[in-house]
Design a protein that fits this description.
By secondary structure, the protein is mainly β. It is built from one helix and 44 strands. The longest helix has 4 residues. The protein is globular and about 65 Å long. The two termini are 43 Å apart.
């Protein structure tokens, strides 16, 4: 047997031998056999980008397993509780960090005896990530004082100063060659673009047409940058071309758009700009605001091509499919228990259907209700949408044919995951069931061993899911469906 972890504070020891787990708590000992069930911290489990391995974290232990056999390949012990986990893009290294204590350590798959450790200084650690070349680590300090770029090859460090405090993410171009950050200096916002091979300033964009910069994102081909202002008298989105080195498009939600341009008789105005998401092909741009509106912009004219308003009433439309969760209970010994209940997704044909509006407790009273899920399928034909006002409803928009499928569930939807290889969507509701949608049908599936699922990680080939619970993860075999 192999000792994995001992915690002197809670007097618990976990010993793992193949699939047998012995847990000792105080004066009680239990033996449980859980094949392909893994204990984890805070959903810390990830497939490697090449799909060969997956890493799981439990307390201070990092375990690397084979995706094919689930056998342990390496086991590493961190110096403290692990709070963050990230694979490098080349699948060679794993980064672990304790954010509170500003400790970072890197482990190698092919050279397990090699380790890289650093402790960030007084500036603290807000967030951390890999560079696209897998040779540098970028650390964002507390209060965005600076970005530290650490080299794994020679331990040199470069610094980038004055990042705008409202930004918590670093925006790398999809090809990995450039890094864009928003810089605030004496109230003026600008964008600085750095080359990732030298970490030298490559270009500075002064966005005079925007009152402030509230968001940026790269196009899938790395040639364009979307820059937008969310709140002001004039919310605006600018599309900047790195190739032409100039703005090539502007979208203002307040501009009057004729119904003939978008093919709708009744046009509702987008209120502000909350988020922007590119279709994987780069042909359309999804823009959400601070109401229940989402607009798709054409990548040639940068004008609205389609729009969707999340109406709480589903009206008559023969193309729309509505799948509603229903609980079927069976009697056993004249008693009805939850263990004998069966859940199904039933297609509803009657109209109209009212979508449940969330309770006030479900929405942060200090913020505006907004879209919290806007995810394109890998092919770009479908868009999964959820709004905080309707926590149990999921809209699945067929963009090509412009019709909707609805999932109306009993519990709040906490996460969705698209299959990276085909049009297949999984939705999770913090319960022992998950919901699978394809263009042909939607079904309810019990989770393995009744684990309560909060989220999932998809294998790059789409044949496996790592289902993440509160303190457990389990491998789920995803059948190859046409």
């Amino acid at each position: 047997m192999k000792l994995i972890y001992t915690d002197l504070h809670c007097y618990s020891t976990v010993i793992v031998y193949h699939c047998v787990c012995i847990v000792y708590n105080g004066d009680a000992m239990t033996l449980e056999v859980e094949k392909n069930v893994f204990r984890i911290n805070n959903q810390l489990c990830e497939f490697s980008p090449d799909g060969r391995f997956f890493a799981i974290v439990y307390q201070a232990n990092l375990i690397v397993k084979s995706s094919k056999t689930t056998e342990s390949i390496h086991s590493f012990v961190f110096t403290d509780i692990i709070e963050y986990l990230e694979w490098s893009r080349n699948s060679e290294y794993i980064l672990c960090a304790n954010i509170k204590k500003t400790i970072v350590q890197v482990y190698s798959i092919h050279y397990p005896e090699w380790q890289y450790k650093l402790v960030e200084g007084s500036a603290g650690l807000e967030s951390i990530t890999w560079s696209p070349d897998s040779k540098h680590i970028l650390i964002l300090s507390n209060f965005n004082i600076q970005i530290s770029v650490w080299s794994l090859e020679n331990r040199n460090v470069n610094y980038i100063q004055n990042m705008k405090s409202s930004f918590r993410n670093l925006y790398f171009s999809p090809n990995g060659k450039k890094l864009a950050i928003v810089v605030s200096n004496e109230g003026d916002d600008t964008i600085e673009i750095y080359k990732t091979d030298t970490w030298k300033l490559y270009k500075k964009l002064i966005c005079e047409r925007l009152n402030t910069i509230d968001g940026i994102c790269w196009s899938p081909n790395s040639e364009l940058i979307c820059i937008w202002c969310s709140f002001s008298n004039e919310p605006k989105l600018i599309i900047y071309s790195n190739v032409l080195e100039s703005d090539i498009g502007v979208f203002c939600p307040t501009q009057t758009i004729s119904s003939s341009e978008i093919g709708y008789e009744h046009h509702k105005e987008l209120k502000g700009i909350k988020s922007v998401k590119w279709m994987p092909s780069g042909q359309l741009l999804a823009v959400t605001g601070y109401n229940e509106m989402i607009v798709l912009l054409n990548h040639v004219t940068w004008k609205p091509l389609l729009q969707l308003h999340l109406d709480p009433i589903i009206k008559e439309n023969y193309l729309h499919k509505v799948y509603e969760e229903r609980v079927i209970q069976t009697k056993l010994s004249n008693k009805i228990t939850s263990s004998q209940s069966k859940r199904v997704l039933e297609e509803k044909c009657e109209r109209p259907i009212n979508i449940k509006i969330g309770k006030n407790d479900d929405i942060d009273r200090f913020s505006i209700a907004k879209f919290d899920i806007v995810e394109f399928s890998f092919c770009g034909q479908y868009l999964a949408i959820k709004h905080e006002l309707y926590p149990t409803a999921l809209w699945i928009w067929n963009i090509v044919d412009d019709y909707l499928d609805y999932l109306l569930l009993e519990n709040k939807i906490v996460a969705v995951r698209w299959n990276p290889t085909r049009a297949q969507l999984f939705a999770f509701c913090e319960c022992a069931h998950m919901f699978e949608w394809t263009p042909q049908k939607a079904i309810c599936l019990p989770t393995p061993r009744n684990i309560t699922v909060l989220d999932a990680r998809c294998h790059p080939r789409g044949n496996l899911l790592l289902l993440c619970g509160y303190n457990k993860a389990i491998i789920y075999q995803n059948e190859n469906k046409s």
